[in-house]
Amino acid sequence: MKESTITRRKNQLPYAMALLLTLVIFGIYLSRAGKILTVRWIFGIAFGFVLQRSRFCFTAAVRDPILTGNTSLFRAVIIAIAVAMVGFSSIQFAAHLSGYPVPGMIKPAGVHTLLGGIIFGIGAVLSGGCASGTLMRVGEGHLLNLIALVFFIAGSAAGAYHFGWFKEHIIKSARPVFLPDLMGWGAAFFGQLALLFILYRLALWWDYKSRAQ
């Protein structure tokens, strides 16, 4: 059994080398159109590799604690949000102190946010993954996720096509939410960090409790 496994892995080496050569050639081709395309190409490949090796998936992060009791992905998401929040908050606060408009996607929050989250959550659970998880599993050759990707694209295209109607009749009446305007910069920043810390501790507690059962 071990010998056959080793042989199968060796037989995959030419395919890996051919794929690597194809990626390099295509990267060189993109560099002729613009160096920024090559940078994006390299970043996309590296991001996909890390995503596949880490098995990172936002849907699994929320699903696994309920199904298996494992909160490792959920805690990883919390850490990622905390790191991103610190970085973006620093940029926004620096712009605020300088008198510049605060950068960021400050969008209205309302019924459409809740409804969209519910629909997306149901679809993600039925398809077995979110956008990142679906792309990662398509790269691994999962046919079910390939079907999910097709309908993911179709649904996104339909949503983009009808977005004007939703914006005019639903989103327009909602109010943009920016926590520093509601709570102040200090309360918004440290309040979010405190909430994330509490969620992290609860995730650890849930993990230990699930393993003890």
From TrEMBL:
TM region(s), chain numbering: 12-30, 36-52, 73-94, 114-136, 143-163, 183-203
Key words of the record: Membrane, Transmembrane, Transmembrane helix
Keyword Transmembrane: yes
Domain of life: Bacteria
InterPro entries for this protein: Sulf_transp_TsuA/YedE
Signal peptide as annotated in the record: none
Pfam families: Sulf_transp
Key word Nuclease present: no
Protein name from the UniProt record: Uncharacterized protein
